């Protein structure tokens, strides 16, 4: 095999680290792949890290110690987040998105892989330090965002169901307060979560907060901890949510019935 | 601003192209970002492409013409696909995954972002030439794989629901033959698909093929074309599926009731 040049190593390192977010790659892996010395690979990683920093492409860190190596985390600068969320708010204000019952049509937006990924990365970066073991969501609309949050955190996604289906095996079922104060059922496969795990709860939309509180209660049933609760968009009213401490990227202020459109703005943390 | 060195440009180009699969980035974008000449950026792209090829990290192509530029496609070599699917088959043969009704517990595997991404990329690469406009799946378990297929193809995901929910707006509803020959209902928001679009239908599991055929019928209702039908795993029996031409990565041969485990093997195209 020809000698592998720095140019090739940098391209490969950038691609491999960025494609496995929040996982540690040992220097040894790269040394073997490139047939290069540790000091060489270490310099390569510094160069990639510097390029990522310069162009706002995420954070590449060196982790010391026996299990050490390099770790990439998708991070979105405040500037980029502010810009992206302003654009997203604008899209959600398009006429025709108002639905009966105070809901907003967002499925087209949240199911775009790049949008879901961006939202997932903005949500994820608030929780790296809490080191969640998994991301929990409730079917269906929140799944794309939750999966991309899990991807950024390098952890599995766990999906609670509206009903326990045959193909999930034995399940824990709980009741929770859904929209319009109706009592709803949520089910989660017994094997999906282990005692002591830390769950980050993610959903697309929060109105009363009942579904999110249901997921918090579900984690209690599994003796798991809640590392945080994050949503893409929360309604302004009711101010008092059933779940505590949820963070939202966007606020649905109200529906402007004359314009037939929602009024949406970025949450304070992302205001211009 | 300091002059941007080739090292930095390569790291940034590798990251930016790989993070937006199957989208064309014009040379002009990079020229502006790096304050560099087209010939320089063009050489950079060739170097990144060569590194990706050498280390089996995907395909970076130059697209000629007015709308030309560089396009990255996640591609998985046969060697890597064979290895990955053999490992996946082995995991699905673990005892305890057998569920009543001939189902297999796969949610833990398909909801791992890296596994979902790998499966999505292996599925996607069979359909790049069909140029689908969207990926269609039916809630819930297939969503992670379908989202990652859509990500690789650079197109939106569309999710059919078991029921039309208030928050999706007006919907098309059809009946289809579900498991155990039961008649089930599938709903899809009217605005989700436009006439003439090409849909790639993706799901995690195929037994009779009724759900997949339901999605084919749904696309007919929308006057959309079907660009293909792909699943992660299909049962050997019944040989005759309700849907035609579906491709599967894995075959669930049978349940070994003595071992209490499934017998799973890669499909012929991925056999050792």
TrEMBL record, chains A, B:
Residue ranges constituting the Phosphoribosyltransferase domain according to the UniProt record: 111-248
Pfam families in the record: Pribosyltran, PuR_N
GO biological process: negative regulation of DNA-templated transcription; negative regulation of purine nucleobase metabolic process
MF annotations from Gene Ontology: DNA binding
Family annotation (InterPro entries): PRTase-like, PRTase_dom, Pur/Pyrimidine_PRTase, PuR_N, PurR_Bsub, WH-like_DNA-bd_sf, WH_DNA-bd_sf
Record's keyword terms, sorted: DNA-binding, Transcription, Transcription regulation
Occurrences of domain Bacterial purine repressor N-terminal (ranges): 5-74
CDD domains linked: PRTases_typeI
Similarity comment text for this entry: Belongs to the purine/pyrimidine phosphoribosyltransferase family. PurR subfamily.
Subunit structure: Homodimer.
Name listed for the protein in its UniProt record: Pur operon repressor
Organism: Candidatus Pullichristensenella stercorigallinarum
Taxonomic lineage: Bacteria, Bacillati, Bacillota, Clostridia, Candidatus Pullichristensenella
Gene transcribed to yield this protein: purR
């Amino acid at each position: 095999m020809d000698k592998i040049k720095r140019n090739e190593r940098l391209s490969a390192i950038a691609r491999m680290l960025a494609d496995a977010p929040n996982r540690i790659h040992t220097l040894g892996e790269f040394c073997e792949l490139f047939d290069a010395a540790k000091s060489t690979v270490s310099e390569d990683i510094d160069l990639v890290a510097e390029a990522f920093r310069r162009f706002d492409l995420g954070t590449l860190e060196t982790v010391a110690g026996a299990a050490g190596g390099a770790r990439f985390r998708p991070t979105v600068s405040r500037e980029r987040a502010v810009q992206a969320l302003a654009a997203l708010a604008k899209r959600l204000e398009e006429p025709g998105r108002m639905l009966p019952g105070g809901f907003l049509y967002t499925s087209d937006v949240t199911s775009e892989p790049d949008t879901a990924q961006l939202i997932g990365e903005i949500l994820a970066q608030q929780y790296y330090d809490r080191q969640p073991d998994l991301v929990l969501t409730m079917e269906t609309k929140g799944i794309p965002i939750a999966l991309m949050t899990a991807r950024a955190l390098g952890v599995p996604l766990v999906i609670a169901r509206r009903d326990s289906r045959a193909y999930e095996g034995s399940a824990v079922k709980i009741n929770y307060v859904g929209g319009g104060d109706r009592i709803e059922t949520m089910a989660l496969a017994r094997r999906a979560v282990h005692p002591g795990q830390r769950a980050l709860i993610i959903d697309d939309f929060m109105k009363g907060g009942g579904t999110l509180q249901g997921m918090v209660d579900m984690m209690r049933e599994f003796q798991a901890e809640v590392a945080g609760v994050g949503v893409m968009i929360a309604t302004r009213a009711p101010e008092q949510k059933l779940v505590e401490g949820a963070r939202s990227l966007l606020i649905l202020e109200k529906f402007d019935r004359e314009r037939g459109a929602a009024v949406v703005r970025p949450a304070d943390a992302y205001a211009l």
